[in-house]
Design a protein that fits this description.
CATH topology of one domain: Heat Shock Protein 90
Number of strands: 4
Distance between the termini: 26 Å
Number of helices: 2
Shape: globular
Helix content: 25-40%
CATH architecture of one domain: 2-Layer Sandwich
CATH superfamily of one domain: Histidine kinase-like ATPase, C-terminal domain
Order of helices and strands: HEEHEE
């Protein structure tokens, strides 16, 4: 995954939880050791911050149950706590996209 440098004034909670979402997402990709390339994008869109993390890994069924695994749940909880949303697009063999949108 590449490095992203952002400047400007972000609310502290947005910065802390946004960084945590990225960290969890990257750690999940690393745990499965099948990612060759990844994309990290952060942009301001229509009064919100959009954070996209995409990889070309093995993917998974996001509607599945993952007992004992808190990564997906913690990312969603952080987004909701900030008034935002978290979308996951993935399928076995197709990589994964996690898109978080947080209002400013």
């Amino acid at each position: 995954m590449g490095m992203l440098v952002a400047s400007g004034n972000l609310p502290v909670a947005l910065f802390k939880d946004g960084v945590a979402v990225v960290k969890v997402r990257v750690l999940l990709a690393d745990d499965h050791k099948v990612v060759r390339q990844g994309l990290l994008r952060l942009e301001q869109v229509d009064g919100s911050v959009a954070l996209e993390v995409r990889d070309d890994g093995s993917g998974f069924d996001p509607s599945g149950s993952f007992p004992g695994h808190l990564g997906l749940r913690s990312m969603r909880e952080r987004a909701v706590r900030l008034g935002g949303t978290l979308e996951i697009e993935s399928a076995p063999g197709a990589g994964t996209l996690v898109l978080t949108r947080i209002p400013l």
